[in-house]
Amino acid sequence: MNTVKGKYILVVGLGISGMSMARFLHGKNKTVVATDIDPSRKDVEKELNDLNILTQVGYHDHDTFNNAEIIVVSPGIPLNTPYLEQAKSNNVAITGELDIFSQYNDCPVIAITGTNGKTTTTTLAGNMLKACGYNTFVGGNIGIPLVDCLMEKDKPDVIVAEISSFQLDISKGFKPEIGVLLNISEDHLDRYRDFHAYADTKWDLFKNQNENDTAIINQNIEDVEKKGAALKANLLNFASKNREEILYGAIIDQDEITIKTKGKTDNIKIESDELRGVHNLENTAAAALACLSFGADIKGIGKGIKAFKNLSHRMEFSGTINGVGFYNDSKATNTDAVIRALECFKENIILILGGREKGTDFSLLVHDIKNKAKKIIALGESKETICETFSGIIPIERADTMSDAVKKAFLSSDSGDTVLLSPACASFDMYENYTKRGHDFMIQVQQLKEKTK
Asked: Which of 32, 308, 404, 442 could form a disulfide with 399 if both were Cys (CB 3.0 to 4.6 A apart)?
């Protein structure tokens, strides 16, 4: 189609989120137009056309943007694209998934954001609430759009939502009853003006909360005291460092979490190998605080922790070859995630690092890599930058493919060593997404294992 007439809502981006949004708005008797500049989205065009949703796939049209009543932008679409900027200058209202969801939702929401650990914490919180008997919907940036919940027949008791900075960028009215901020470190600097602009977006999770709501925040985030004091919501903190400053919240000490609320103290012992590393104890503490704030009991929370299985491509054990352990941490797409991964091992790590940069400052890794790693295998578009950063600090070897990287890492290892894929970069130079990258790593490990038998 080329021409659109009358009042309509324009949905931009036809990935999972955009497709759900188009179907949802159509179900609310709205006139919907859907567009995606990617010609590969032609495969979803017929599904929408069968619902009488008009589509423009493989191109964008300025008139379609400028004449829309409302534009709903999918999270992955940069807001500074010329089509959106021109529509905004023509006073077209631009919104996103969170505000459309908020307009129709009347269920309590636990919203979880942060640079790292969002999916793990969201999954943990969902497990805990389900173990306590609550009908729980888990969605958002985790892969199930929030509007899908609004299209289900059975209304849940609670919604646990993973929220990204891209979703918060465009949100004005989203207000979770319980908001969780796990951490903030450098990421997505290819999309934000600077680190502070990115951090401010994360803090926007709490901007609409009031005194009846709860904010759960990592005590070790920069400026937490100043920013936390400005919030209207009830504040709970958690931390593995500077623990003495926490009056109410969760204190992490080795493998134990102590939760202090008014008039009560609970202790949770973490004995699961699935939650390896301090960062996962922080994730567990945050999830537990959120669920307790909703009304869950400590026994059910314990059951939810025991039921947790490590998520794919997040410190996923991939096998052992001649005493060398291989771990797939492909989801580690920023430097802080790599630091957290390195903390899980004592030393003697051969680190596979690299991919497409997102304004990545690899120098942030120097201290931890120097202490924990014995060699870097540099991979992808960023390998020359990696070699420049770590030259003279640690042995480095370049690799052209994942197969090459795995082989070179193994040949550089001794029994008892660890080969860790933790790239600190996006995957788009070589793969469609981090999942495909991690899957390739695991395939190469298995093929190498067969050859060394």
From this structure: 404
Alpha-carbon distances of 279 from 66, 222, 245, 311, 344, rounded to whole Å: 45, 17, 19, 14, 9
Q: Please state the pTM of the whole predicted model.
A: 0.83
Domains annotated for the chain, with CATH where assigned, are 9-97 (3.40.50.720), 105-307 (3.40.1190.10), 316-451 (3.90.190.20)
Return the amino acid letter for 222: E
Q: In what order do the strands lie in the sheet with 136-140?
A: 136-140, 158-162, 109-113, 178-181, 214-218, 234-239, 249-253, 256-261, 264-269
Residues near 211 by beta carbon (within 8 Å), at least 6 away in sequence: 232, 233, 234
H or E element in which residue 306 lies:
helix 298-307
DSSP 151-208: TSSSPPSEEEEE--HHHHHT-SS---SEEEE----S--TTTSSSHHHHHHHHHGGGTT
d(CA 142, CA 120): 9
Backbone angles phi, psi at 326, to 5 degrees: -115, 130
